[in-house]
Backbone:
């Protein structure tokens, strides 16, 4: 396993990390979920990601139960707050009330005293940013959170948060979690340059484009019955003929590079110095093993240029 520093911190995380979005506590049966977590740990993955909103807390419960057998200092655990957890007007967003209550609830579900990283799952325009930053800093001071992160914030939003933190001497953001893959490269324009300039690491989700970059979807009209896309309409809508054509071209490049399509996709992401970790999902332990193989793939400038021409 390879380990990388997380932003401007001394924390080292595995270059491949394991997440639980759309998988644990719902779509994937618990035995496979738990076995995937154990396989990841066995392979040297020390970075595990979840969120309170994933299956309304069930993913945290599965993750917490599976990780109980390991020494707490041996892994890095992240969760998130923002999305509504009930119909209540205060059970959402990044207010002090919601953040404090949800942090405590997440800790109970995860069966731990602290999380290493607490992400603001989206930006909240309805809450003063200073209130959010002070709440995060208080959680750090209390020892319930070790590091502060955000997810899918713009460069401008992160800049505003850093300015408040520096002015008030609050804990700074060290990590951002955006979507990033060969088919979705929006962060290259502003987010990655901002991260490089301000030493904020990227932990990217959906590096395999929710399965598209594994090559298992051969046609927009032929979705495997046992796939996530068959059960989730939003994923199915994202599988278009245009994307299938791109994936087919990328598969030929992977063949020339002597690796699988998923290995190509992950190696392409990890070539970015500002990327601290690529966050993968896994329905089965063998998928974790397959993803880790990407760490041994080095892409030549010629292969990268061919990928750029397609994407």
Residues:
């Amino acid at each position: 396993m390879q380990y990388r520093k997380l932003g401007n911190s001394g924390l080292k995380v595995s270059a491949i990390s394991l997440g639980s979005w759309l998988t644990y506590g719902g779509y994937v049966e618990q035995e496979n979920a738990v076995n995937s977590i154990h396989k990841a740990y066995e392979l040297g993955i020390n970075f595990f990601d979840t969120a309170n909103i994933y299956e309304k807390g069930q993913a945290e419960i599965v993750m917490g139960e599976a990780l109980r057998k390991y020494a707490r200092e041996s892994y890095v655990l992240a969760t998130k707050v923002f999305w509504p957890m009930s119909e209540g007007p205060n059970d959402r967003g990044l207010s002090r009330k919601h953040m404090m209550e949800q942090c405590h609830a997440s800790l109970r579900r995860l069966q731990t005293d602290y999380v290493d990283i607490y992400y603001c799952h989206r930006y909240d325009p309805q809450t003063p940013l200073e209130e959010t930053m002070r709440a995060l800093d208080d959680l750090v001071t209390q020892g319930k959170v070790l590091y502060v992160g955000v997810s899918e914030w713009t460069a401008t939003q992160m800049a505003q948060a850093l300015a408040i933190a520096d002015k008030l001497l609050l804990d700074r953001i060290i990590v951002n979690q955006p979507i990033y893959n060969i088919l979705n490269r929006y962060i290259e324009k502003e987010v990655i340059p901002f991260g490089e300039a301000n030493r904020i690491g990227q932990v990217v989700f959906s590096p395999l484009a929710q399965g598209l970059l594994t090559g298992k979807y051969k046609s927009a009209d032929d979705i495997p019955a046992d796939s996530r896309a068959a059960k989730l309409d939003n994923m199915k809508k994202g599988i278009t003929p245009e994307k299938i054509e791109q994936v087919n071209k990328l598969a030929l490049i992977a063949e020339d590079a002597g690796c699988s399509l998923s290995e190509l996709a992950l190696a392409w992401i990890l070539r970015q110095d500002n990327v601290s970790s690529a966050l993968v999902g896994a329905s089965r332990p063998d998928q974790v093993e397959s993803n880790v193989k990407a760490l041994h793939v080095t892409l030549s400038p010629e292969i990268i240029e061919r990928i750029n021409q397609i994407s």
Observations:
- Residues 241-257 form the longest helix (17 residues).
